[in-house]
Amino acid sequence: MPLSDTAGVVAQTNTIATSGTYFISASAMPFVSSDGTFAFCFDTLASSGTASQYGGAFATGNYVSASISDVLFVEAGDSVQLLCYASGSSSEAFDAGITATLINRPDAAKKKHSRHRHEAPGTAPVSLELVSQRRTYTMGAPPRPFNWVAYLSALTRESFFTF
């Protein structure tokens, strides 16, 4: 597909059926002609035309990679487009593609209730068993603030750890 200094659509998703947050992955391989100096691409919603993320590079007489990763909220009925532009009289875009993957729907965001009570760090009961000299030690939550090495040493009257 020929490119000019005005952005043109090189790839587009189908119409989005479900409103929500989408992960966008797009790429193209523009060729910058020998009289050109750059090629860039960006993703946008078809409804707005406003650039979101860019990819591309400055080059002359060579291919450049234009890769884009983005996250956009897309309304049902809209689509996501990849637009590219380049300098040079015979610059072209090759192998352009775009995908939009639904990652979150507003109507599916139901509050989930935990079956477990949440507690501040270090206050939840701890169960730890140590086996030393054929004896087993069981303990509950350590005192705050705690030093595990000192706590375990005090329980067993010996030092298990060396640093």
Q: Can you tell me about this structure?
A:
This protein has two domains: 8-107, Jelly Rolls; 124-156, no CATH class. Helix content is 6%, strand content 44%. The chain has one helix and ten strands. The chain is flat and about 75 Å long. Strand 9 (128-132) and strand 10 form a beta hairpin. The chain is mainly β and 163 residues long. The strands form three sheets. The protein has a four-stranded antiparallel β-sheet, with no helix packed on it. Strands 2, 5, 6 and 8 form a four-stranded antiparallel β-sheet that branches. A two-stranded antiparallel sheet has the order 9-10.
Short structural summary:
This protein is 6% helix and 44% strand. The chain contains 1 helix and 10 strands; from the N terminus they run E-E-E-E-E-E-E-E-E-E-H. The longest helix has 9 residues, at 148-156.
The helix/strand series, from N terminus to C terminus, equals: EEEEEEEEEEH
Tally of alpha and pi helices: 1
- Structural class call reads mainly beta
Largest sheet: 4 strands, antiparallel
Helix content: under 10%
The N- to C-terminal Cα distance equals 64 Å
User: Which second-level CATH architecture of the largest domain applies?
Assistant: Sandwich
List the uncertain runs.
123-138, 158-163
SS elements, strand count: 10
- Which fold name corresponds to the CATH topology of the largest domain? Jelly Rolls
* Quaternary status: single chain
Strands of the widest sheet, in order across it, are 1-7-3-4
Shape: flat
Q: Report the mean per-residue pLDDT as an integer.
A: 80
Radius of gyration: 29 Å
CATH class of the largest domain: Mainly Beta
Fraction of residues in β-strands? 35-45%
